[in-house]
Specification:
Elements (H helix, E strand, L loop, with lengths): L4 H20 L26 E12 L11 E19 L5 E7 L1 E6 L6 E4 L3 E4 L4 E5 L6 E9 L8
Antiparallel strand pairs: 1-2, 2-7, 2-8, 3-6, 3-8, 4-5, 4-7
């Protein structure tokens, strides 16, 4: 057992250096706009209608009635199913922060602040915050399933 310590001592600095470099030289995380492609108003609003999308609210909580007492806000949890060729139309998150989890499939996001399309794959988590406006399209052959948690102000707001 102790005869391997010499090998470990010899290569340990290389392992540490390789680990440090891999953390500093990594490209953008999967499902994010690359840093060199971020641009305010990099994409114009489009007027596509929802196509092949099923949006089901699985549950909601009126936040004004909770200890946090966030007046006129609702915490919602939804499941979106987007068929191949399906479109989630242009919408804004300036007043509705959300977290999107891609449970199944692959979908492309066209964000207002990114000049390139952003690909999201199963397992990706996408924060949507103030300054995010976008639309999504399923370009694949597999149905995409998204789980969405958002904080909505207007219960009549049916934007996705």
């Amino acid at each position: 057992m102790f005869r391997h310590l010499g090998i470990l001592r010899t290569f340990w600095p290389s392992f540490v250096l390789a680990g440090a470099l891999s953390m500093t030289l990594q490209p953008a995380f999967a499902g994010e706009c690359p840093a060199d492609k971020i641009k305010a108003n990099g994409r114009e609003k489009v007027d596509f209608k929802a196509v092949g999308v099923t949006d089901v609210t699985l549950g909601s909580i009126h936040l004004g009635k909770q200890p946090a007492a966030i007046k006129d806000r609702e915490l919602r949890f939804r499941k979106l199913t987007i068929e191949p060729g399906g479109v989630v139309p242009w919408h804004s998150h300036d007043d509705r922060p959300a977290l999107i989890y891609v449970q199944q499939g692959e979908i492309v996001e066209y964000a207002s602040n990114c000049v390139d399309p952003i690909v999201h794959k199963a397992g990706d988590l996408r924060p949507e915050v103030h300054g995010t406006s976008h639309w999504w399209k399923n370009l694949g052959k597999e149905t995409v399933i998204l789980y969405v948690g958002d904080v909505r102000k207007d219960p009549r707001d049916h934007n996705m």
